[in-house]
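tool_log.txt
---
The assistant was asked to compare two proteins side by side. It first ran the structure predictor on the initial sequence, then on the second. Raw inputs and outputs are pasted verbatim so the downstream comparison step can read them without reformatting.
(1)
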Amino acid sequence: MKTYAQKASEVQRDWYVIDATNQTLGRLATQIATLLRGKHKPTFSPYLDGGDFVIVVNAERIRLTGRKPEQKMYYRHSNYPGGFKAVSFKQLIARHPERVLRFAVKGMLPKTRLGRQQLTKLKIYAGPKHPHAAQQPRVYEPRPRG
């Protein structure tokens, strides 16, 4: 019996919509990263983009546990002297709520061209509306763990 290897032309992509209201940031990000990579499918190949499209709505209502909303910081550098910037979670969620989830998911994907390609299938919206009704997305219900 030969081992099955999926080809790029055989990939079947679905669209899922996830409501981020009162979801924990890290737990939601792991589920999204799994969908984007295609690890939930029996035909998963680590070298192939076989994942699905994910639409996240209500990103502004995502939550963190404990004291992380006050303590968590996001850092960047402009590569110029003195170009170090630090932004707290509360500032970032107020100004750009979709970036918080995008940064969390990006850190869980491969740091290669494939990971950047998989991240383009993630669509995040701060409010409850999204323009992807024509794709007929299904509501994603995670499987119970345990």
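(2)
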Amino acid sequence: MTVDKNKLAWITGGGSGIGKALAIGLSGLGWHVIVSGRTESKLKLLSMEHSSIDYLVLDVTDKLANVKVFDSILNQWGSPSLVILNAGDYTPMAAENFDLDLIHKLNSVNYLGVINGLASALPAMKAAHKGQILIMSSVAGYCGLPDAGPYGATKAALINFAESLHIPLKKEGVLLRIVNPGFVSTKLTEQNDFKMPAQISAEKAAEKIINALDNDSFEITFPKRFTYIMKLLRCLPYRWYFYLVTKITGK
């Protein structure tokens, strides 16, 4: 296949949810997409259904495997102009069920897994002085919420890390951006036992992200009617914040 290198994308966590919807959406717009994930059967089926989608199996928690996968992309197709570090996991944890193993697991996937992917992609993109990297975070990273501690902390770490790198990387021609969605319908959010306000489909989330690729804003966040309320909450004095969170969540 002849690849247009200006439309070559790599997506981690591409076998389901937002990652899969992004791969299909970009493919429909003429992109050649490489998806990665742990479950080969999902990736293979996606690739069989879409001729412009290829796959490479990857466990993002494996630092060396990230480098090998990105090197394979470079050798077979060239340097991607778009990297979406989307792989993530979620399990709620109530304070009375404090689970250290779960905290380590989510940190390994959601935070260090993203850093592993970033480290593998950056050298080639910096050398080319071009490209866009999207880090999938969440509005859960804006402020601490009941039962979301292990997950929210990883997303807060991603936001902070991306903020620290955005300006220096932009000077080198690489646009590093953060994606902070609200509630998106996926297998992960099906675990929630509460009504999720302003919930949208994975396909709608992918559409929002793809539509934002042409601007250079640091943050992509949606749906704004919900995410901007979350932004406001994090600006409040803690006394007001904890009062409102208790009233809203009942916890």
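---
observation on (2): The beta strands are 8-12, 32-37, 53-57, 82-85, 132-136, 175-181, 184-185, 200-201, 219-222. The longest strand covers residues 175-181.
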